[in-house]
Amino acid sequence: MGLNFHHECGILLRAGADVLSISPRRLATVKDANGNDVQIKVNDRLTTVSPFLYLQYKHGEFTLKAKTLFAEAGEHVNLNGGYGVKRINEDGSWEYTPTRNSSSWITLSYGGKVGEKSKLQGILFGGYVRNFGTKEALVDTAKEHFFFSKNSFSNLNRLWRVSPTLLWTIWKFQLGLEYEVTSAQYGENFSAETGLAEDNLHWVTNHKIQLMTKFNF
User: Fold this and answer.
1) What tens digit of pLDDT does each residue of 7-64 get?
2) What is the DSSP string of 38-77?
3) Residue 138 CB: number of other CB atoms within 10 A?
4) How far is Cα of residue 110 from the mean position of the Cα atoms in its chain?
5) Nearest to 51, CA basis, from 80, 82, 18
6) What is the pTM of this model?
7) What backbone phi and psi angles, to 5 degrees, belong to 63?
């Protein structure tokens, strides 16, 4: 859900929130009076709210686009997030707490004509992702009590990326050259208290250059 605002000067503004409500389990295993394992129905539920803000500005050949998102249990929006168990109740039900991640990016592009059917465009992209850990403390770090999109703990604390690109379009043929640098900070010893791995923090940086060709028909 959200709101849109558009102005004739070229500004587009969007603000809203993504609301997610899931039931991770329908059945739980508990001990009966005789000490035997029995299955019972439970009403476990997790509800999250992820607000976002989007900005777009166009003027002539220049375009600016930017977006920021603060996500709870953000695996459904392609962030490295999930949820974990914060409390185990006597009736067999579980209470959950989501991870919290922010993702922000900005793109600047300018395209100028260099001929009747030729166009050169420059694009600059920058992005930043931050892991804030879980909203509340976890009961423990056992895998059966913590759920990521890839069913593993996340030792990624933050990352950033910068990528400049040149696109040259000639009629229906397009040639692109892109350089990308990405740097990620990792840690060790995942904590049930914070939902973060904050020991031995270290950065890993990757550089990539790629050439792209495309023919539209």
Assistant:
1) 888 899 999 999 999 998 888 887 777 778 788 898 899 999 999 999 999 998 899 9
2) EEEE----EEEEEEEEEEEEEETTEEEEEEEEEEESGGGG
3) 23
4) 27
5) 18
6) 0.84
7) -135, 135
